[in-house]
Amino acid sequence: MVKKSSPILVSACLLGEKCRYNGKSNLSPSLLRKLQGRKVLPVCPEQLGGLTTPRAPAEITGGDGRTVIKGAAGVKNNRGEDVTIFFRRGAEKTWELLCGEGVKEAILKDKSPSCGKNFIYDGSFQGRLRPGLGVTAALLKEKGIHIYAETEWPSGESDIVCRQKP
Asked: What is the mean pLDDT of each run of 10 residues along the chain (166 residues)?
């Protein structure tokens, strides 16, 4: 008997979609090879949240994605504009999208204010990284989705199930 694998959510930029803030992608040919044969659900939380491409670069200030979700931190672009609402909305829409699909795992672009899994930029727009989760990564982790940075995915399946919102 062949085991059917569940779909996997992947940051769209890693699949070659030109949805980064600067209108480029983060295409990862090695990840594409690993994903062959899997049902993939590409997503760009920032676009889902209503931001355009291209857009001004943004960084989390005063915490990380967990504190943004709690309302104790924010996301600002390099012009000083508060874009937190777009990041929160994108995270929620990503959750809604994947829950109906049976997704158990997500491969996200590290260092992103939405998708960062291990590191995010520190909010100074000086290119400095610090440990932390992006907004979407934090929400998915909170909901029980197993998340990986693009360099970490072992191409196996987790046993975590998608939980509906309370």
From this structure: 73 97 96 93 98 98 97 98 98 93 95 98 97 98 96 59 38
123: left (phi over 0), alpha (psi -120 to 50) or beta: left
Task: Look at residue 155 in the predicted model and tell me its pLDDT.
Answer: 57
The interaxial angle of helices 84-99 and 135-142, nearest 10 deg, is 40
Both structure tokens of 89: 């909305």
Which of 66, 80, 90 has its CA nearest to residue 123?
80
The tokens for 12 are 């769209």
| CA-based radius of gyration for the chain | 15
CA contacts within 13 A on the Cβ side of 64: 20
Kindly write down the DSSP assignment for every residue of 133-156, as one continuous string.
Answer: --HHHHHHHHTT-EEEETTT--S-
Q: What is the DSSP annotation of 84-99? A: HHHHHHHHHHHHHHHH
Looking at residue 6, its pLDDT comes to 87
Side chain identity, residue 93 = K
